[in-house]
Design a protein that fits this description.
The complex is a heterodimer of chains A (about 170) and B (about 120).
Chain A lengths: L1 H43 L9 H9 L5 E2 L3 E4 L3 E4 L3 E7 L9 E8 L6 E7 L6 E7 L5 E9 L4 E12 L4
Parallel strand pairs in A: 1-9, 3-9
Antiparallel strand pairs in A: 2-4, 4-7, 5-6, 5-8, 8-9
Chain B lengths: L5 E6 L8 E8 L22 E8 L2 E8 L8 E7 L4 E9 L4 E8 L10
Antiparallel strand pairs in B: 1-2, 2-5, 3-4, 3-6, 6-7
The chains are: A alpha+beta (about 170), B mainly beta (about 120).
Amino acid sequence: MERRNFIKSIMATSAAVVTVPTMVFAENNKTAENNETKVEVKKVTVKGPNDLPYEDAVKAIVGDKELKDSDKVKLTVPEIAENGAVVPVKVAVESPMTEKEHVKSIHILNTKNANSRCADIMLTTKNAEAKFASRVKLSESQDVVAIVAFSDGTFMKAGKSVKVTIGGCG
Amino acid sequence: MAKRRAIVKIKPKKYAEGDIVKVSFMVQHPMETGMAKDKESGEIKPAHYIEDITFSFEGEPFTKMKVWESISADPFFSVQYKVEKKGKITVDYIDNLGEKNSKSKKVKPKQVQTEKA
């Protein structure tokens, strides 16, 4: 019996020793997290004129329909952008561009800017090729997404991530 | 308001009827997001960006664009166009303060067969 009690006591004390510091650490972590969230809230207080998060923007374009990743949409974006204020974006879509089958519109979006919409391009058959190029601002490292609407009502998507070393939105 | 310089370019320079060319459009425009601070005064600059761009050939629009402030300052856009006949490509744009402007470029296709040596 003595031996059993002795082991029990050792177990209890060791458990206490292990748990106490973890508790302290956890509290420290909590306070650190609180500080971080406060700083973030301060940053976000400046609001743009027409802010829209990425998911809402996609819903506004696609609605309830399916959105698939596709090889038909080719998006060329630099992997690492040194300056976030000028990021070249190129989109090319494989399509015959005839009356029956053509690209209706190309939407260029980003995932983390305050306003996730960059540009909507409405094309016609006179374009003969569905290609578009422009330059975009990115506030931080994020994805650039091109959503393409075809004339038969389907939607395709292509996305690529861009690492931004200096943000471009002030 | 200061005058905004704009360019419409057609590439390649020499093309025949039926060729597909690249039409690009560039403007001098600040494209302010409405979120950036002025470095000297510390005040937030008001938003000022282009909203609508229309590419048209002889009054018939062939490409329309809606643009938001996430496009870079001094923006550049390019699209493809199939040349059919002589005419003029005009690009109109409006910004959020109601500033309207347009720039045009003549389309002069050259037929290779009728060209004299």
